[in-house]
Amino acid sequence: MDIYVIGSGTAIPAEGHSPAGIVVIHKGSPILLDIGPGTLSRLHLANLTYDQLDTLLLTHLHPDHTLDLATLLQVFDSAPDAQRTRPFSIYGCRGTNGFIERLFTLYPAITPQTYPIVIKEVYRDDFSVGNLQIKTAPSGHTDESVAYRIQDGRSSMVYSGDASDQGNLVKLAEGADVFICECSFPEGWETGDHLNAETAGRIAHLAGVQKLVITHRYPPALSADLVSQISNYYKGELVLASDGLHIIVKINCDE
User: Fold this and answer.
1) CATH number of the structural domain spanning residue 67
2) Would you state the torsion angle of the CA atoms of residues 114, 116, 121, 122, taken in this order, to the nearest 10 degrees?
3) pLDDT tens across 131-178, in order?
4) Is residue 13 a part of any domain in this protein?
5) What pTM value is reported for the model?
6) Is residue 255 situated within a structural domain?
7) Letter string b/e over residues 22-56, b meaning 16 or more CB atoms within 10 A of that residue's CB
8) Fewer Cβ atoms within 10 A, N terminus or C terminus of the chain?
9) Local structure of 172: helix, strand or coil
10) Which phi and psi (to 5°) does residue 111 adopt?
């Protein structure tokens, strides 16, 4: 399993920290998690092109996690000599169906013409994509937002999306090999719909994850010593992500 962080930041422009986008590739098949603005232009960071995408997982519907979806759907139908016929599957939080219907009303030209689009709303769900098992749980960022656990065999990764300490991240991330977790603010920063260095560190510690990868840092977190702050609560391997980070997770399963 290869993981590429192609968008490690927030909606606020910061060099090397673009809006949300994570690619997971297993046995040559990619899954995209979130599709913030500019995601399509950064797919090369994962050695991908847009036409290789068949599955999108959305954590929630805020613009910094969804804006390039309209562009992707437009490209699927309008790229010269590249007419799409394969289905495109979108798994998203509750409200995703209505969100996409409104996109089609706002931009009629992006409505699929040559391929089927399959949309499934998730909250506390288990499903499979190819050989991967995927589990979702509330992330606590909004009433609908979800985090994802992707697993094959005994190895797994978890992506929090935007989250708070009111979600179910500890249980979802339990024992994960890689936990890609938002940390919007430094320790001591009061926030009800995001994580700070303390809450992110505590969740990773309680879940017993092997590697904690921090994303979604607002400017105060970019300028703080997050490594020292998070390390007060989590003693495992810690990485502060920037765009282009590549993580390899070994998959222990029968071939």
Assistant:
1) 3.60.15.10
2) -120
3) 999 999 999 999 999 999 999 987 999 999 999 999 999 999 999 999
4) yes
5) 0.96
6) no
7) bbbbbeeebbbbbbbbbbbebbebbebebeebbbb
8) C
9) helix
10) -65, 125
